[in-house]
Specification:
mainly alpha; Glutamyl-tRNA Synthetase, domain 3; Arc Repressor Mutant, subunit A
């Protein structure tokens, strides 16, 4: 059987980066095994369903390059790929479980069950709907067929899985090894809710079987569900797929899953794209897709070499699922930025310009496309995120204010002389390729230290002491702008 994996998010809000990492691992598994990567929307929770969330999931996968082979929009021979459109299938398969007495109708109201929970709690116990009490509750195990039919007409009901007690279950997770559990610890999980929609547990198993999923790769938080899913597979006499439960992405302290609260407190984005005005995404923060994907791949995986920078294409070739770790991985925003910086450096100036449009618009008001490409090339290796372009290129469009200049630089009496001489030099000279030689010769002839000379010139042109090659900056700005900035600084000092 060919490899088939699926990413199955619930459209109840924006896609968390933990979910994006799950999508990435599924995508890589499919690519490595020459299989299919499927997107399935698990929208059985209609009360929490957000329509725009589905488009958000699609947009996130497209931005990061994790393109599904089958999906609600793309289609495929195992559709529909939205669970809300598969209700007739769930009805058919749950009926088989009822016929074989592996599931039953339950008519208990929420109020009655809540009251039982309170009573159990008073006695120091936790209420569990299971083999120990199901015969005392309002369900089809305790009524005749005629009585059941009458009650169904007049009352809402759920359908529960009938767990056989005193059985030892064993199922293997390919990351964590064998997992064993006694069925006495399990409750009779709801399979079909009172609104007729399936629960995650039931729809998940039916869909994975019908879509011929060969390996289920999902987050560690679903590990407690594994025994129920194993029981369901056995109830239908279906073969189980392989399972992999990925380690959690932890917050910076390592003391819990990276949450929205951590995001707000530590200013760490937790979504690939922005969701509304308050939740800024990695794309809007200036991450490039390969930068984010590269970092997420390393959260829970290490190839045991010193290599850390991977393109998506390289991950498709080098990712080894045997090297996924069991323990959670701490999220480190600074490490993510460092990786992103390395991916920006690898882009050509033209490629960078295509994806950096929000931060380069201002440059096009002053320069031709060819000059903008030159500017991008000049500052590229200084960028950590794309939004740094605005800061690193600000002096190309704005005259420096000289508010933060180092005053010690101008305590040296040579500074004023240097500025006066530079004004003369730039007034009479053309900005030729040998400008650097001209400036250095001037300093040597006038016994001025090169460091002081270059610091003074850079401060005049850029407004600070760091930045790209000053002579390339001057060449782009042109003679008149360069001369005017030297004069501006001279006026600032004199004032």
């Amino acid at each position: 059987m060919s490899c088939r994996v699926r990413f199955a998010p619930s459209p109840t809000g924006p896609l968390h980066i933990g979910g994006l990492r799950t999508a990435l691992y599924n995508y890589l598994f499919a690519k490595i095994n020459k299989g299919s990567f499927i997107l399935r929307i698990e929208d059985t929770d209609q009360n929490r369903h957000i329509k725009t969330s589905e488009n958000y999931i699609d947009d996130s996968l497209i931005w990061t390059g994790l393109i599904p082979d089958e999906s609600p929009k793309k289609g495929g021979k195992y559709g529909p790929y939205k669970q809300s459109e598969r209700k007739s299938l769930y009805k058919k398969y749950v009926s088989k479980l009822i016929e074989t007495e592996k599931a039953y109708y339950a008519f208990d109201t929420d109020e009655e069950l809540n009251q039982l929970r309170i009573e159990y709690h008073k006695k120091g116990f936790t209420f569990k709907y299971d083999y120990s009490n199901r015969e005392t509750l309002k369900n089809s195990l305790n009524f005749s067929n005629k009585k059941i039919a009458d009650i169904k007409k007049q009352n809402p009901y759920v359908i529960r899985l009938k767990i056989t007690p005193n059985k030892k279950l064993a199922v293997k997770d390919k990351i964590r090894g064998p997992i064993r559990i006694n069925t006495n610890t399990l409750d009779d999980k709801v399979l079909i809710k009172s609104d007729g929609m399936p629960t995650y547990h039931f729809a998940n198993v039916v869909d994975d079987h019908l879509m011929k999923i060969t390996t289920v790769i999902r987050g560690e938080e679903w590990l407690p569900s594994l025994p129920f899913h194993k029981i369901l597979y056995d109830a239908f006499n279906w073969n189980c797929p392989d399972f992999m439960h990925l380690p959690l992405i932890l917050n910076a302290t390592g003391k819990g899953k990276l949450s929205k609260r951590d995001s707000e407190k530590l200013r760490i984005p937790i979504f690939p794209l922005s969701w509304g005005n308050e939740n800024i995404g990695y794309r809007e923060k200036g991450f490039v897709p390969n930068g984010l994907i590269n970092y997420l791949a390393l959260l829970g995986w290490n190839d045991t070499t010193e290599k850390e920078i991977y393109s998506l294409k390289e991950l498709e070739n080098f990712f080894d699922f045997k090297k996924i770790q069991k323990s959670g991985a701490k999220f480190d925003l600074e490490k993510a930025k460092w990786i992103n910086h390395n991916h920006i450096k690898k882009l050509s100036s033209t490629e960078l310009l295509k994806i950096a449009e929000p931060w380069t618009k201002n440059l096009f008001n002053y320069y031709t496309k060819q000059k903008v490409v030159t500017i991008i090339k000049l500052v590229k290796e200084r960028l950590v995120v794309l939004k740094d372009i605005k800061k690193e290129t600000s002096f190309f469009v704005e005259t420096p204010s000289y508010e933060n200049i180092n005053t010690k630089l101008f305590e040296n009496p040579n500074s004023s002389k240097i500025l006066k001489d530079l004004i003369k030099l730039f007034s009479s000279s053309k900005l030729t390729d040998n400008l650097k030689t001209v400036i250095i010769n001037y300093g040597s002839q006038n016994n001025i230290k090169l460091g002081l000379l270059m610091q003074t010139l850079r401060t005049a042109i850029v407004g600070e002491l760091s930045g790209p090659d000053i002579f390339l900056i001057i060449k782009i700005l042109g003679k008149s702008v360069t001369l005017q900035r030297i004069k501006n600084l001279m006026s600032k000092i004199n004032s």
